[in-house]
UniProtKB/TrEMBL annotation:
Keywords: DNA-binding, Transcription, Transcription regulation. InterPro entries: Tscrpt_reg_HTH_GntR, WH-like_DNA-bd_sf, WH_DNA-bd_sf. The keyword Transcription regulation applies. The keyword Nuclease does not apply. Pfam families: GntR. Gene3D superfamilies: Winged helix-like DNA-binding domain superfamily/Winged helix DNA-binding domain (1.10.10.10). It comes from Xenorhabdus cabanillasii JM26. GO terms for molecular function: DNA binding; DNA-binding transcription factor activity. PROSITE patterns: HTH_GNTR (PS50949). It comes from the Bacteria. Residues 6-73 form the HTH gntR-type domain. This is HTH gntR-type domain-containing protein.
Amino acid sequence: MGIIKTSYVDRVYLQIKNKITNNEFKPNEQLCISKLTDQLNVSSTPIREALNRLLHEQFVIKGDNRGFYTRSLDYKEQLELVTLREILLLSIIKIYLNKTSQENLNDFSKKIEDLINKETNCNAEKIKNVDSEFTVLILDAINNNELSRLYTNCIERNSYPWHTFIKQNAVYFLDIYEKLSFYIKKRDLLNGEWLIKGIFCKLKNSKHIELLCLVSD
């Protein structure tokens, strides 16, 4: 019975965590237990256990009324996460290029190109799908659990600023991913690195994170 209970709580925990990282819950939003029980069709007990786990992981906080809230955005923390994400992504691509055959590189590039060309319209959902698929494909390919865990954790904690930013710059990011997949296929690390640094420089210089943090306070 203990195994079943743990698995059940894990499922609820992941559902709530996904809603936070997918921006369905915004920073500083109260997580009402009664509403969550209705949304997830579960009792309050696994909801509380899941929220306490997320509290320990600092995805949520407790307010003055003892209720649970998603964390507000901290400007310094988000800038550090952006920098860490840049460093990790560059490391992941270097590892990927060093250990992957040309056939697999071609296949990777083809999948990204197909995803970009799947729809003619450039919308927020499309760029989010391309961004997500790029991450999944490259993390699966490097087969490094520790590096994948670090990068995934970084993505989750930086999800809201990142997704709102790429949605606002969808055309730019689709062009970037198309070029990046081409450079990866050609094993052109120099131009790939230049491209990635340009993305993160654009984000840091845009005041986007600073403005989001002000709104969430």
